[in-house]
Structure formats: structure tokens, C-alpha cells
Design brief:
two-stranded antiparallel ribbon; disordered N terminus; globular
Length: 414
């Protein structure tokens, strides 16, 4: 199926500064890195947040759900905006809003205020993530983009390794607000880099990107593309399992297994370390076998994680290794699925990469939001909700990889 792209993109006026490979990796680390920073720095802080504001875990869980829902909804607007006006101006506005939202969350005195500010954080974060993914399509072919994304996400894995223990240390030292202050600092660094170093990467702007009729036609074209649907389904399933971990790991380790915030942060880093190992596999497998075949191979890790997680959900072993070993296996597969899926979802639409990235992100975020609602109600003082949620996500990830991705997902540039 040849992908359809609506409208005639107009070239940008004036020369564009080039973006070297090192600068491209740094840009992706800073932009895409806001997502794990904004989520992972709160992992060990959620129980402290509940205690400080005197609320139960259910409304505290809403701070994560609001973040991810706003993140998904905002992508529907950010994607077309970045195709119309370019990546750079959208990034400047989005990162400024991120700083304001982080400051508001840090100063909040009620849980409802935290939920609102975290929602605005998610909306602003959408600009960084959507534009970062679209930049990969601006600069590279799908095969090259997959390798670059794997390198960048490997770096993000290192960020994710640092964030949970940093969160635990900050919470132990100065409370949950210190974790939010670290997000503010990360946003300031990203904004400074974009302002001083990042050129516009979009070679053409789509002047009809915000017009309703062309927007709907382009949306139908993207959603009707089986390659896009296969990759979007893969990203949604694999991120769904990760979101269960992000929502519940700190609660399970601290409230169920009795770890301190600092100890919990160190244990959570095992997930990130295994994710980095997965991205290293992704780089090798993409170069040798292509995006789709790399994902099919990685589905073996997902299937094994499914079996281990469902066994844990059945037995509820109160051991850190019983909880974390299936997570480690899951994360290796996720380290392959995520860069391949994010690259494949936009590969067929070079002139509408922002919109394609936004639609994939929206689908993922909406599913994650409902997972968060379920998880908040399912918490029962055991390890079962965490294991069950991740086990189901792992099984669906393997199924999508071995069916839809195998059959439809080799991207072809339009």
C-alpha cells in the first residue's frame, strides 16, 4: 500500500543550518528525555506525595494519569502545528510552558492542584516528544532513523537509570517537591539548547496542516495505512506495560515490600539498565535485519516476560527478585520495540511526520490513561496488579509483533 500524503509541502524560505549527528543525538536526548524525567522522577515520590498532602494513593495515581492523558491529547494539536510552523517555534513555546507547569506543581498545596499542573506538564511535554520524533524523519531514512533512535533511546535509558535513585535521594533529603524541582532544571536545559543550538529541521512546511478538511483527509490517510497501524499497536502495547511499571513500582516496592525511597529508586533502575541492553540489541538487529525483523526477534523476550509476570500474578511472591526479574526481561524487549515502533510509525509519512507521530502518541496515551485508571482501583496491597498489567501487555506486544508487524510493517517512504 502506497501511503497518501495530502497537500503540497512548501520549502522553507532561507537557508537552514545543518545539524550534525552528535548534535542530533544530544537534541533527541534532551527532548525525548523529558518524558522519562517527568515520569521516572516521580516513581519514588508518589508515596511521599500522598503522605505530605494527606490523601490516599488513588488520587495520587491520578497525577500520572492526568500527565499521560494530557500528553496524548496535546499531540493531536502539536503534530499539525509542527508541520505547519516548523519544529523549532513549537519547541520554544512548549518548553516554556513546561517550565511554568513544573514550577506550579512544585508550589502546589493540594492534590487537585498537583493533578492540574501535572496535566499541563504532559501537554507541554508533547511538544518535545512529537518534534523530537519528527526530527528523526526530517533528517534520516527509516533504516538510519531506527539506528539513530536506538542510540538516542539508549541514552534515555541511562537517564532512566539515574532518575529513580535520584528521585529516592531527593525525596529522602527534601521531599517530593525536590523531585519536581529537578524536572524544572531539566526543562531549562532543554530550552537553552533549543534556543541556542537547534536549527529548524523541517525542509518543508505544510500550509494546509491546520485546515480542517486537509487535516481530516491526512488523518484518514494515516489511520488507513496498515504499516502505521501495526507500528502504533506495537508502541501502544509495549508502552502500556511500561506505564503499569511507572505507576506501580514505587508503590509496590515501598508499601508492599517495605523498601525505603532510596532503596526503591535503586531497584527500579534495573528496569532502565535492561532497557539500555535492549537498545543495544536494537542497533545490531536493525542494521542486520531491518526494523520489522528486529521486532519479531525481540518478541521472544516479551513472550517470556508474559509467562513470568502471569506466574507472579498468580503466586504473589513477596520477593524483590520475583517482582523484578520479569520486569528486566520485559524491558530488554521494550528496548527493541520502542525505537523501532517510534521510527516505523512516522516512516511512511515524511511530509506529515509530526501528525503521524502525534496520532501514534495519542493512541498510546489514551490507552495508558485507562490503564492508569484501572491500576489505581486494582491496588490491593499485593504485587498482583503490577504483575498482571505487565503480563497482559507483554503478551499483546508479542502477539502484535508476530502478526501485524511481521505482515504489514516494513515502512515505505511516500
Amino acid at each position: 500500500m502506497t501511503p497518501l500524503e495530502i497537500g503540497r509541502p512548501a520549502p522553507l524560505a532561507g537557508p537552514r543550518r545543518s545539524l550534525g549527528p552528535v548534535s542530533a543525538i544530544v537534541a533527541l536526548l534532551l527532548l525525548l528525555g523529558l518524558q522519562p524525567i517527568t515520569t521516572d522522577l516521580m516513581l519514588a515520590a508518589l508515596p511521599a506525595l500522598a503522605g505530605d498532602l494527606g490523601v490516599s494513593l488513588a488520587p495520587v495515581q491520578m497525577t500520572m494519569s492526568a500527565l499521560i492523558l494530557a500528553f496524548g491529547l496535546a499531540q493531536l494539536l502539536v503534530g499539525p502545528l509542527s508541520d505547519r510552523f516548523g519544529r523549532r517555534p513549537v519547541l520554544l513555546v512548549g518548553l516554556t510552558l513546561y517550565l511554568l507547569a513544573s514550577l506550579g506543581a512544585m508550589l502546589a498545596s493540594q492534590i487537585t492542584q498537583v493533578v492540574v499542573w501535572r496535566g499541563l506538564q504532559g501537554a507541554a511535554m508533547a511538544a518535545a516528544v512529537v518534534c523530537g520524533r519528527a526530527m528523526v524523519r526530517d533528517l534520516y531514512t527509516p533504516q538510519q532513523g531506527g539506528q539513530v533512535m536506538a542510540r538516542a533511546l539508549g541514552g534515555l535509558g541511562l537517564i532512566s537509570i539515574v532518575c529513580p535513585p535520584l528521585s529516592g535521594a531527593l525525596v529522602a533529603l527534601a521531599g517530593w517537591r525536590a523531585a519536581v524541582a529537578a524536572m524544572l532544571a531539566a526543562g531549562m536545559l532543554a530550552l537553552a539548547f533549543v534556543w541556542w543550538r537547534l536549527p529548524e529541521t523541517a525542509s518543508r512546511l505544510r500550509h494546509d496542516a491546520l485546515r480542517l478538511a486537509p487535516l481530516l483527509r491526512q488523518t484518514r490517510a494515516i489511520l488507513g495505512n496498515r504499516s502505521f497501524l501495526a507500528w502504533a499497536a506495537l508502541v501502544t502495547c509495549t508502552y502500556g506495560g511500561l506505564f503499569v511499571f511507572l505507576s506501580g513500582s514505587g508503590i509496590v516496592l515501598i508499601r508492599v515490600l517495605g523498601f525505603s525511597p532510596t532503596q526503591a529508586g535503586g531497584v527500579i533502575s534495573l528496569c532502565s539498565a535492561s532497557y539500555v541492553a535492549g537498545t543495544l540489541l536494537a542497533r545490531r538487529w536493525i542494521a542486520r535485519h531491518g526494523l520489522a525483523h528486529a521486532v519479531v526477534r525481540a518478541a521472544g523476550f516479551s513472550a517470556l516476560a508474559c509467562v513470568l509476570q502471569l506466574a507472579q500474578a498468580w503466586l504473589d511472591w513477596r520477593s524483590v527478585w520475583a517482582v523484578m526479574l520479569p520486569v528486566v526481561v520485559y524491558s530488554v524487549g521494550h528496548g527493541v520495540h520502542q525505537p523501532c515502533g517510534q521510527t516505523g510509525a512516522v516512516a511512511a509519512f515524511p511530509a506529515a511526520a509530526g501528525q503521524a507521530s502525534a496520532l501514534a502518541g495519542f493512541i498510546t496515551a489514551v490507552v495508558a490513561f485507562f490503564i492508569g485508571l484501572w491500576f489505581g482501583q486494582a491496588l490491593d496491597g499485593s504485587t498482583r496488579p503490577l504483575a498482571l498489567g505487565m503480563g497482559v501487555a507483554a503478551g499483546l506486544t508479542a502477539l502484535v509483533a508476530w502478526t501485524a508487524v511481521r505482515r504489514f510493517a516494513e515502512p515505505r517512504a511516500g
